[in-house]
Write a structure and sequence with these properties.
three-stranded antiparallel β-sheet, 227 residues, five-stranded parallel β-sheet, 8 strands, 10 helices, alpha/beta
């Protein structure tokens, strides 16, 4: 069976999720936010054990007892459940993002979540965003995008998101966190963050989500012959 597969990779703060959901809604495709799976797994692993070394040493046992379910509905947004508990709001913190970055370095965790991610490939197709969707998880994708932006612009966007959530933050600190996360993502030995060789690279520093959407949807229609 042939599915339409569109991948959108890139670092934090480039607008992957916003554009990916716009594309999925426009084309009536399924949507997967792979980053939320890593966040949910990390939060569950460290929920009762705050010692990183203990978690890593017992990872095989710990992940065997974890079930993650991701849901997306147009107009309603995303939901993520871990062992039937709603983790949707709890995973959207800077602390969880740091935990997720550490867990993402472990091959056992990546193998587990890759299996989960592949399960979301269903009719009529999928738009998946993350950091290795086009380079590892869905290498057979029909069209691949890689979004990038200056770290200053990405930090500014994150600052505005946090303000909207009523969370105080400091721009210089956010810049440093993003640089640290970029370093961890690009230098990890397993599935490092990088554009796929056949990815279309778009710099979103000076364009908004609607402009990025227009660029991507036109490329998709041209490539997949969708009217």
């Amino acid at each position: 069976m042939t599915y339409k597969i569109i991948t959108i990779d890139g670092p934090s703060g480039v607008g992957k999720g916003t554009v990916a959901t716009m594309i999925a809604d426009e084309l009536g495709l399924n949507y997967l936010d792979s980053g939320s799976l890593y966040r949910a797994l990390a939060l569950k692993l460290f929920e009762k054990n705050h010692n990183f070394e203990d978690v890593i040493n017992n990872l095989d046992y710990l992940i065997s007892d974890i079930n993650i379910e991701f849901q997306y509905k147009k107009g309603l947004g995303t939901k993520i459940f871990v062992n039937n508990e709603d983790f949707s709001e709890k995973i959207r913190t800077e602390k969880v993002a740091i935990l997720a970055a550490n867990i993402a370095k472990d091959k056992r965790a990546r193998d587990m979540l890759e299996e989960y991610q592949r399960k979301y490939l269903a009719e009529p197709g999928l738009v998946a965003d993350g950091r290795d969707m086009g380079t590892k998880v869905f290498i057979e994708a029909n069209i691949k995008f890689y979004l990038t932006a200056s770290v200053e612009k990405r930090a500014e966007r994150r600052l505005n998101q946090l303000k909207d959530q009523g969370i105080s933050a400091n721009l210089p600190n956010l810049i440093q966190r993003l640089l640290s996360r970029d370093k961890a993502d690009t230098e990890r030995l397993i599935s490092p963050l990088m554009p796929a060789k056949d990815a279309i690279i778009i710099d979103t520093s000076d364009i908004d989500a609607s402009e990025v959407f227009n660029i991507t949807i036109n490329k998709i229609r041209e490539t997949l012959k969708i009217i």
